[in-house]
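Q: I'm a student working through a structural biology exercise. My instructor gave each of us a protein and asked us to get a predicted structure, then write a short paragraph describing it. Mine is CAAX prenyl protease-related protein. I'm not confident about reading structure output yet, so if you can add a plain explanation after the tokens, that would really help. Here is the sequence I was given:
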Amino acid sequence: MFEPAALRRVLPFFVYLAFIFVADMAERLGLGPAELRWLYPVKILAVVAVLAWCWHSYEELRDWRLGWGGCALAVAVGLLVLVLWINLDAGWMQVGTSAGYDPRTDGRIDWLLVAIRIAGAALVVPVMEELFWRSFLMRWIAQGDFLRLDPARAGLKAVVISVVLFGIEHNLWFAGMVAGAAYSLLYMRSRNLWAPIVAHGITNGVLGVWVVMTGQWTYW
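A: Happy to help. First, here is the predicted structure for CAAX prenyl protease-related protein. I'll explain a few features afterward.
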């Protein structure tokens, strides 16, 4: 059984995943795509509530000091992952199909939905996912007492397993693995979880802008 420190890093991620089941049940009950879009704000609010409740225990988030060089590197990694993400989309690099998130109503974009989607993806999801995938899972695979483990000493096995699982979580599994590897290496190099959070946020935020500009809703 996981100790409290682990559970506090797992719970926000599992709340996020639980909404896949909620969406499926809602669809079975007859809700259409237009109504189901509003599950996303509910999901984000639920994750924010859990993160806020557990925030006092996230000791790895107490050090905000990345420095200008660290911030620049995180932004560069985030943009590089974005470029790779929208190009690593060959047939063999995908599993299944993604319905995406279409914020249009009668052909017109609902900008409130767009704002919520981008804010959730850029500000909330990176914190939730990096706490789970990098701070917890990668280090926990290497050492049960994961909070005492220097990220730089996680080891190849822990990195590979967590990166593969992170990739499988996404429809674009290969791009997901590339992103996971980039964020993991950034965390190991900086020893500061805010580095991959910033990079992840840049990737998701700029991707959202690109999706709206191009209408490539399946990337959402």
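A: Here are two points you could use in your paragraph. The first helix runs from residue 4 to 28. The first strand starts at residue 104 and ends at 105. It's a good idea to check both against the output above yourself.
Q: Great, thank you!
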